[in-house]
């Protein structure tokens, strides 16, 4: 949907660009044929150019982030699950669909109009006698319509014109037919249907039709000896305003401009430079809107960075490699060695081999005494790539166990960010005696603040006993002296009423100050709420990582935690919608308060 709107905006902009270039630079020039192709090129460009996108690749140096397999922090969440109450979502207007619906209605209406015009044209031509002369088909009709051409058809009513006038008209229409001007008319009409909402396209169509008439007038005048008689024919035809749409008809409302262009001197050839003025504008359009920049990291430098980072870890620690040719006995020895020397439980399962006794599947689980489990699960139809178990120490003596896969250590790649912290301590508890870990509970989403409400200050009280009495109008409408006296008394009464009416400015200031104070309190609460939401999102990311590391992405506990997170986010969205409702209700209350104040003022004025 967004791509469609962007295309329409770009196309409309290009149409406007070509139209204004024609209007300000070319409209008064006599290069009619060149202007014809310029205007058609503008329509084609407006459709094609938005699809022409130049992709620019910018090579950047990769961020030298070391492969620091930091220990995973074990967040101890307290169980705090809350049941979610399903609330009915409020109706929201999809403005994209509304806009698309409005566009479709306009498109359908103009398409129907286009079909009706074709039907009207067919009604005029149907059943008429056609006279073939050279490449033209002449149709003499009895209807009172202006002469027109439609492809190779030239339609006219011979009874309405003299012989010399008919000759001028036919020469004019032959130019339209011979140069296929009907194609220009149909193309401009199609663009008007596609971009019916754009007022520029209607002006563009008018410019195309006007320029076609200039071409036909110019060519016809060359073949007619009496140019003045041709101009008189133009003036005569203006009295017949019944025209058939989607045709090149001899009648046009801009007769004055056509006569002016007939008598205008030919433009100088050096004015052709004006056509090239559109090129810089198109270049600017491409540079601003049609260049897509893609940033890519330099692959070689990135590989070297990763390799150097992994090498630094391998250099400081111990590496136990498992290759495709590692035997089952070697796997058992590796498990025993890691347990005895580093107090690390290594479990190997799902071992599969091919006919060459090479490993094609293996699952490696590194288990910490706390119960954390980190897994590399590889399965393929071909021999597996090598993987390594890297054990190094931090400055405080803490051991870090990392599982990585590599291609002969030539291009290392982290299989999963599975990090295990192993501390040196003595314990007699075996893995079989450990109880299953307690699943962590997700953090609770903060509650959205509510706009503070409270009683409003009372309006000032008016002592009606002190209200001045209005003067009595004279009984006789013809008594001018009495009416003059009455008008003076009314003027004095109005001044007294202005002095009597209470000063509401202080009351309004009091209301504004109270609302400003409440808005300030609400904004501070919203700032705290946004900070709390950021912390909530961060905690949820950590929680998801912790659950995934402990139970694996396919476990029921992980799926349950993700579902709980989705429920929390839905509740948050519902809270925000409720907050919007509260704000709208507050605005309604304020408007109601204003209405009551106005009503109170009207009642006081009536009583006066």
From TrEMBL:
Coiled-coil positions: none
Keywords: Membrane, Transmembrane, Transmembrane helix
InterPro entries, per the entry: Beta-lactam_resp_regulator, Peptidase_M56
Record flagged with keyword Transmembrane helix: yes
Record carries keyword Chaperone: no
Region (Disordered): 572-608
Domain Peptidase M56, first and last residues per copy: 160-262
Parts of the chain that traverse the membrane: 6-25, 37-59, 100-119, 186-204, 272-291
Taxonomic superkingdom: Bacteria
PANTHER family linked: POSSIBLE SENSOR-TRANSDUCER PROTEIN BLAR, SLR0241 PROTEIN
Name of the protein in its database record: Peptidase M56
Organism: Flavobacterium panici
Species lineage: Bacteria, Pseudomonadati, Bacteroidota, Flavobacteriia, Flavobacteriales
